Structures are given as structure tokens and as C-alpha cells.
């Protein structure tokens, strides 16, 4: 028998209302001054896919409602809770008060390699992703509990922020032992 693509009704999708009733993952995505509304939309879409608890938009990030965000998010901006802060440091300080381990996804002198990182199952992680040109602001890196780096082999050593978000979230969810959801038969 040949393989066939699944129909949308076979994917086991939940509604935005059902999404909010699912157990918390302990993962929050923080966007530090992301310039592109399309990248913000992609962040929402990946966050929905991996059941992130919330997205924290900081500084110049576009916020919903936005046609440009919606074009990439495909409605995920309606399922994933979000909040906006004018300043990323205010968000980081609040997340630390809420018990999050703040992790800058950035190449630093002491960054941990993603393939060598196993999150603690009882931990809460706020993952900070930086601006498309400047990365995570140095003051945010300084305030973070540690930095996490995606090892790269090519000449650029730079990934689009939306790609980085997908890689990091997949790694955390797989290492946390999150069960893969069943699909409808």
C-alpha cells in the first residue's frame, strides 16, 4: 500500500479553547525585539505546535492582531497566550520571580551546546530568542541563568530566529519526555 498524506480531520487538532485546557509545559518563549512580524507569526505557530505556555513579546515585536503575524501563524496567535513588555529586562525579571530558569538562545563564551543539554523535568524554562541582526541583547544574556547554543557546521553560524525556535522547542519537548499526541484513526 502506498503512503498517503493525512487529511486535516485526521491530525487530532484541538481548538484554541481546548489548547488552553491542556497541561502546562513549563516552557515560555520570549522574543527580544524581533523585527519581522512574519518571524513573530512563525514563533506563535511553533509555540502552538509544541504546546508552549505563553509567548512574551518584547520591545519592537509586532503584536496581534496583525495580518502579517496571522499570515505565518495561521491562527496560532489565537491559541497561544501572549503578553507584551516594552522592555525585555522587565519580562526577564518578572519571569525569574515566577520561578523560571531564563535561557538565552545565543552563541556566547560559556554557552551550553544544545546536544549536550538535558532540561530538568520539574523545571520551568523561559527561552529568549533575539533580534534578527543583533541577537539577544547583552544585558539579557547577562541576566540569564545560562545560554544555549545550537551547534552549526557551515560558514554562517546563523539561523533564522523562527528556525531556531523550532529546533530548541523540539529538543526540549523530546528531552522532557513529553508524550507524542495520538491522532484520530
What does this structure look like?
This protein has 185 residues and is of the alpha/beta class. It has one domain (23-175): Alpha/beta knot, CATH 3.40.1280.10. Helix content is 33%, strand content 17%. The chain has helices at 16-21, 37-49, 67-73, 76-79, 88-97, 138-143, 161-175, and strands spanning 27-32, 54-58, 82-85, 101-105, 112-113, 125-130, 146-149. The protein has a 7-stranded parallel sheet, with helices on both faces. Helix 2 links the parallel strand 1 and strand 2. Helix 2 packs parallel to helix 3 and helix 2 (37-49) packs parallel to helix 7 (161-175). The chain starts with 15 loop residues before the first helix and ends in a 10-residue tail after the last helix. The mean pLDDT is 94.
- The count of domains is 1
**CATH superfamily membership, which one?**
SPOUT methyltransferase, trefoil knot domain
Class by alpha and beta content: alpha/beta
Provide the spatial order of strands within the biggest beta sheet. Answer: 3-2-1-6-4-7-5
Amino acid at each position: 500500500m502506498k503512503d498517503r498524506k493525512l487529511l486535516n480531520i485526521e491530525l487530532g487538532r484541538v481548538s484554541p479553547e481546548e489548547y488552553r485546557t491542556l497541561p502546562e509545559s513549563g516552557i515560555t518563549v520570549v522574543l527580544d525585539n524581533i523585527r519581522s512580524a512574519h518571524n513573530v507569526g512563525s514563533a506563535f505557530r511553533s509555540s502552538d505546535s509544541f504546546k508552549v505556555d505563553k509567548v512574551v513579546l518584547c520591545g519592537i515585536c509586532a503584536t496581534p492582531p496583525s495580518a502579517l503575524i496571522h499570515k505565518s501563524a495561521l491562527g496560532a496567535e489565537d491559541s497561544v497566550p501572549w503578553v507584551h513588555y516594552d522592555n525585555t529586562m522587565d519580562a526577564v525579571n518578572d519571569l525569574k520571580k515566577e520561578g523560571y530558569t531564563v535561557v538565552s538562545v545565543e552563541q556566547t563564551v560559556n554557552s551550553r551546546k544544545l546536544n549536550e543539554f538535558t532540561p530538568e523535568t520539574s523545571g520551568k524554562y523561559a527561552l529568549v530568542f533575539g533580534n534578527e541582526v543583533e541577537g539577544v541583547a547583552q544585558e539579557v544574556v547577562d541576566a540569564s541563568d545560562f545560554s544555549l547554543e545550537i551547534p552549526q557546521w557551515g560558514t554562517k553560524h546563523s539561523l533564522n530566529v523562527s528556525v531556531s525556535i523550532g529546533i530548541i522547542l523540539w529538543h526540549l519537548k523530546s528531552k522532557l519526555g513529553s508524550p507524542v499526541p495520538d491522532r484520530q484513526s
